[in-house]
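Ticket #4471: structure export looks truncated?
Reporter: QA, pipeline team
Priority: medium

Steps to reproduce: submit the single chain below to the structure queue and open the exported record.
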Amino acid sequence: MRAIISDVHSNLEALTAVLEDARFVGATEFFCLGDVVGYGPNPRECLGKVMAFDKVLRGNHDHGALLEPEGFNPSAERAIFWTRSQIQPSQETAAERLKPWAFLSECQPYFSGGDGSLYVHGSARNPLNEYVFPEDIYNNRKMEQIFARVERVCFQGHTHVPGVFVELSPGGPYDFRSPEEINHTFTLDDQKVLVNVGSVGQPRDSNPHSCYVLLQGNTITYRRVSYDTEAVRQKIYRIPELENYLGDRLLKGR
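Actual output as written to the record:
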């Protein structure tokens, strides 16, 4: 059983709760689709946990922390510069920080599972940066180009909105099904699908509980896990470089 998570965003409490849940239900493999860091108060600690995973991809916030943030709004940019200050090795802290920094530097933006599965942060067309939102099912050209790059199933994150995109027939039309609409379970068949696994550390589907998926055989199961959102909010409040709303939004899942 494989646990597939994404968009931790330096939220240690959420990541810890999700890992406990995944291990409790029997997960033995762990994949992360990127954005381990950014927005939240515990980048070093979260990197320390995912370094033990079987596969970790690079997300746009991870990329921004390593290099330069591109297309970030001012608060996200400020947060990523603070994040960089927390994880970038220096002469005084090289021994402490070099290993997670080097680990993040080596993460790639996509991974092919060899069984018709693709793992990305953004999309099959642009693994690092492209958003695929539920309303994109009406953008036939965009969806056709993305699905053309998918052999069977693509697992992705980035939007923080979980759900399954289905190609109803080659070239469209397309459908989007939220976890609630599929009763949190989806079985892979001959149809091509995109599976957004949701966000561990900053859900944005009006549900504050962390979201991730389990993959066992051809069955995908969405899991929602509660954690101490108020504790994370207070941590964010105590860091001047992280704007308060980054903590407030955790309580509402927005």
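Status: closed, not a bug. The export was complete when the record was re-opened. Leaving a note from the reviewer for reference: The longest helix spans residues 74-87.
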